[in-house]
Amino acid sequence: MSNFKLADLGEGRFALSGEMGFRSADQILRASEALFDEHTRIEVDLQGVDKTDSAGLALLLEWITWANHTVREIRFLNTPDKITAIARTTEVDGLLKRGERWSGFIEAPNDEDD
């Protein structure tokens, strides 16, 4: 039985509720893969998260990494205070606040004649 719910609110907006921690982070990540895949802009509301820990922060960072590698924008709303505190302590709080599009680095083809 799942101890979380990842609801699709439409147009790239999602709401996560319940537990976001060691017991559920992997399940949430797997559930999000198909849901997020069809969107270039993703917004995740975390207001309903009632239990979290450092694995919850790791999940958010994994989503950010995925967005970076797949040229997407992701942002989080209502991040739980506990996640913000852990992020600040580990000096990754700036990553959670970004709402910009991560474009990564794409190399142009080399036209040199060798």
UniProtKB/TrEMBL annotation:
CDD domains linked to this entry: STAS_anti-anti-sigma_factors
Gene3D superfamilies: STAS domain
SUPFAM superfamilies: SpoIIaa-like
Protein name: STAS domain-containing protein
PROSITE patterns according to UniProt: STAS (PS50801)
Pfam families the record matches: STAS_2
Boundaries of every STAS domain copy: 14-114
